[in-house]
Design brief:
heterodimer; A: 358 residues; mainly alpha; two-stranded antiparallel ribbon; 13 helices; B: 578 residues; 3 domains; 26 helices; 2 strands; disordered C terminus
């Protein structure tokens, strides 16, 4: 008797869930159809030249590359601690600040106007300085704001992270003042080249190539080194990993170092791209990168890269394809996120993590 | 053993030095003036106290023997003192050499450094400083280390004594709000000169303390008649507050209670139903904008054009504040359902980011749809509420309305907490799958949580619009969501009195401390982090949540999410770290 009752209940519940799923999917399909209709009627009718689309797409890829570096930071930390590092955007911003000070230092030394090798060396050192600044911030953050909260319910570290994010932003405001710092590009980085009708700026190429290289380096570290293996083990199961002789604390610190280093590099690159840094210039890119990480499936490294490149492309092409002002690009980004999550609730490539208790 | 104490001292000293450097860099000495160094030393002593006692359990405190502790404290003080003295001397040299440090470090100006030496700014510029002041600074901070040790020892001595905290303390808690209320009313007397220029601030602070202590008093009272009588008396006292406070105080209290309304709504979504909503500001904004459209249609170009084409005059309010309440609330509730539908299947962090995105989308629409919302220029001349022809737009009446609104919402939340729906929410929060298996209709329950939370936020938004009379998209940033979430969590998640206390602490105190406006956000942010480490369940937690977070004897499960937190335990395992 009992079993029949139970099965009938579960049948009803299951049917309900299926109905909702189809309602939600139907809504999503309607949204998608509207989107496609809009693109066909407006975006294609405006008849921009092909070169316009290509250059927009290139811009998108550049932005996507930077987002990917930051998104990887979110995803790495999430994969291991199951926690949103809300202050990651600020870690990036501090990297950008360290970078700008290094840039001023090398400019004062006269390296930036020297021969090409000198400039390249200086640029590399600036990137290294930015990464170092971010790493120090990231590790301190982990030690002070996150480590005491390990094992606490999910909301607790999130609030702590929000607090840390605000603290870092406004500390930078207090210590360095309101006035934005400018990244003066050396003459070497100015300009670009033409392929047909498409203008490709040097900074764009450098940023894209560099971010690809850094992602490759990360991939190699995670997949081929012993520490990477330990990271994967800890992400899988902290307790068991500790039983296998892995120092979990050290692995977590290493994860923060990796993610902060990527963020620092991204910060310096974004600095050269946008030419200014302010105390709050880490916030919006951080939010976008987090969106990208979720889009690809948070906790999933290839997912973060794919999600970020996709988000960059959508942001760059979206407004003109839909025939709406560029101010709406953030709306497009978030709408895409919602639509993707309707069809794939754990992101484009994410599967495993979301099945754990969320 | 001695070496370890020494090393520990070095570490604590280095940490104290880092904190001191930070305080100097953010320009605190400039604010403190001549007493900068002694005040900093006092702060350092407190830092040493916290660091030296290590851990928050009583056992950790009892194990510290005096002699090694003194060695640690003195070492820490000496290290911090020498390093800080060197840093200050370095800055003084730089400034004396005429280097302009300000483009790099905004707050390093002669005035700041001079305050540390206790001299006039001119002396720093000319390099005319007392020769032995570095020694004096180092000694002061070493003393701070020793004071820290004494604090630890005296705390231990105090803890070892058993206090008979019986009836007296309870009666004191119950009487405290009345004492504070009397104090507030007495301060309002124009003849009283206590507090001088800061009398208003003192009064506001006392009023907020009265409300806060009232919550503790209610908790201390025995359930039954005692509690009911106390609640009635306290309500009477609270109802008298708006009539005794002045304009500014009332307006601060008004905004605090508008946030109480918001917090109570969010408490339903996050605290009861466990759905992490980071875009709660969206419903607040919807409420505010809908009321603005209804009461000031002329402010919106598109809406007024539409009305005129329909033959409706658009030069005055369409309907009154009271008639608008159901419309704004329903619109906001509808917004809640619309947000709820796509996120039904999302869990945890995915939900957080989607709701955050939703909040941003709403704000961006308001910013960019200039035809409808007038863009960044905002909607102006929103009508205040009227009652029998009298305007209720002044701060006092807004405070009363906010009190009433918060009361109604608190009552609704209280009834919901114990209802079938409330229990369904709790079941869903604890485990969605199990809840579904026991027959909870997840779709309905989730949507109702979003919708009811949104209803309350809509009401708060309407009152906010009526209070401000001019609203701009910038009033509805992500920070409003973050503030609301923080106040719910600081107060104690799922606890109704906690929300009131959280709003007083996070929205009220910063308003009082306008004088140190610059450091407001940093202090608030640091407090948030410290609070999460020290007392994650909030100031006034609900009983259930307190048990969850302090159940040390509970079974440890494998996943981090399910683990009952072991903060104090974890800390002792981690060694007596600072």
């Amino acid at each position: 008797m009992t079993s029949t009752i139970r099965s009938s209940t579960s049948y009803r519940v299951r049917r309900q869930a299926a109905t909702t799923r189809w309602v939600v999917r139907g809504l999503g399909l309607i949204g998608l159809a509207l989107l496609v209709w809009r693109v066909v009627t407006v975006g294609l009718a405006e008849s921009y030249p092909l070169s316009f689309w290509i250059s927009q797409a290139l811009n998108g890829l550049v932005l996507g590359g930077v987002y990917a570096l930051v998104a990887l930071g979110y995803t790495l930390v999430y994969g291991i601690l199951l926690m949103i590092n809300f202050a990651h955007g600020e870690v990036m911003m501090i990297g950008a600040f360290t970078g700008v000070f290094a840039l001023q230092f090398f400019t004062a030394l006269g390296w930036m106007s020297g021969p090409t090798t000198m400039v390249v060396l200086a640029l590399l050192l600036i990137a290294a300085a930015g990464m170092l600044g971010s790493i120090v911030t990231g590790v301190t953050l982990e030690r002070v704001a996150y480590r005491p909260l390990r094992g606490a319910p999910r909301l607790v570290p999130l609030i702590s992270a929000i607090g840390a994010s605000l603290f870092l932003q406004y500390s930078v405001l207090l210590v360095f003042g309101v006035s934005p710092r400018t990244y003066t590009r050396p003459p070497l980085l100015e300009g670009g080249f033409r392929v047909g009708d498409v203008f490709v700026p040097y900074t764009g190429v450098i940023i894209f190539v560099l971010s690809l290289l850094l992602m490759l380096a990360l991939y190699l570290i995670v997949q081929r080194t012993k520490l990477g293996k330990a990271m994967r083990a800890v992400a899988e199961d902290k307790g068991t990993a500790a039983l296998m002789g892995i120092d979990v604390d050290r692995v977590i610190v290493f994860t923060f170092i990796l993610s902060a280093a990527l963020a620092g590099a991204a910060g310096v690159m974004l600095g050269f791209h946008n030419t200014v840094v302010k105390f709050n210039s880490g916030f919006v890119p951080g939010l976008k990168a987090f969106t990208a990480a979720v889009l690809g499936g948070i906790g999933n490294i290839p997912g973060a890269m794919v999600g970020a490149l996709l988000l960059g492309l959508i942001e760059a092409i979206g407004p003109s394809a839909l025939g709406i002002p560029t101010e709406y690009k953030d709306i497009i980004a978030f709408s895409v996120l919602v639509i993707v999550l309707i069809f794939r609730p754990s992101g484009l490539l994410g599967e495993v993590v979301s099945e754990k208790k969320a | 053993m001695r070496l370890r104490s020494f090393q520990r001292g070095l570490r604590i000293g280095a940490i104290a030095f880092a904190i001191l450097t930070y305080l100097i860099l953010i320009g605190l000495p400039t604010r403190l003036g001549v007493v900068a160094m002694p005040v900093l030393a006092l702060l350092t002593a407190l830092i040493f106290w916290v660091a030296l006692r290590g851990g928050k359990s009583k056992q950790a405190l009892a194990y510290r023997a005096p002699a090694p502790l003194l060695l640690t404290g003195a070492t820490a003080g000496l290290v911090a003192g020498l390093l800080t003295a060197a840093l200050i001397a370095g800055f003084a040299r730089l400034l004396a050499a005429g280097v302009n440090v300000q483009p790099y470090l905004d707050k390093i100006v002669p005035m700041n450094i001079a305050a540390l030496y206790g001299v006039m700014p001119g002396a720093v510029v000319t390099g005319d400083l007392p020769a032995w002041s570095w020694l004096w600074q180092a000694i002061l901070l070493t003393l701070a280390g020793i004071v820290g040790v004494l604090l630890v020892l005296s705390e231990r001595a105090l803890r070892q004594r058993t206090w008979s905290t019986g009836g007296t303390l309870r009666w004191l808690t119950i009487l405290l709000p009345f004492i504070l209320l009397t104090f507030v009313i007495w301060l309002g007397n124009p003849d009283v000169t206590l507090g001088g220029n800061n009398r208003g601030t003192l009064r506001l602070l006392a009023a907020m303390a009265a409300i806060g202590s009232a919550l503790f008093a209610l908790r201390a009272a025995r359930p039954g008649r005692e509690q009911r009588v106390l609640a009635l008396l306290l309500l009477l006292g609270l109802a008298y507050l708006p009539f005794t406070l002045d304009q500014f105080q009332n307006s601060v209290m008004g905004i605090v209670f508008i946030f109480v309304m918001m917090g109570l709504g969010l408490n339903i979504v996050v605290g009861f139903a466990g759905l992490l909503d980071l875009g709660y500001v969206a419903f607040f904004a919807i409420g505010a904008y809908v009321y603005a459209f209804l009461s000031a249609p002329f402010a919106s170009p598109a809406f007024s054009a539409l009305l005129t084409s329909l033959g409706i005059p658009a030069d005055g309010p369409l309907i009154s504040f009271w008639a608008a309440i159901p419309i704004t609330m329903l619109t906001a509730g509808l917004g809640g359902v619309l947000l709820g539908i796509p996120v039904l299947r999302l869990r945890g962090d995915y939900l957080a980011i989607v709701t955050l995105g939703f909040g941003e989308i709403i704000r961006l629409f308001m910013l960019n749809m200039s035809d409808l919302t007038n863009g960044p220029r905002g909607l102006l001349n929103v009508a205040p509420p009227y009652l029998f022809g009298y305007s209720l737009g002044n701060p006092r009446d807004i405070f009363i309305l906010a009190l009433l609104g918060a009361g109604v919402i608190a009552f609704a939340a209280y009834r919901l907490d114990g209802s079938r729906l409330g229990r369904a929410w709790i079941a869903m929060r604890e485990d969605e799958d199990v809840a579904q298996a026991t027959g909870v209709n997840l779709v309905q329950t989730k949507l109702l949580a979003f919708a009811i939370g949104a209803l309350f936020a809509g009401l708060a938004g309407q009152l906010y619009a009526a209070r401000q009379t001019n609203i701009f998209p910038d009033n509805f940033t992500l920070f409003v969501s973050v503030d609301t979430l923080s106040l719910v969590i600081v107060g104690g998640m799922g606890s109704i009195p906690g929300v009131v206390l959280g709003a007083l602490a996070l929205k009220g105190l910063p308003e009082v401390l306008r004088g140190i406006d610059e450091y407001r956000i940093v202090t608030f942010a640091a407090l948030l982090v410290v609070m999460m480490i020290v007392r994650p369940e909030g100031i006034l937690p609900s009983t259930r949540r307190r048990r969850e977070l302090h159940d040390i004897g509970g079974p440890a499960s494998e996943s981090a999410a399910l683990e009952p937190a072991l903060p104090s335990d974890y800390r002792t395992l981690d060694g007596g770290k600072p």
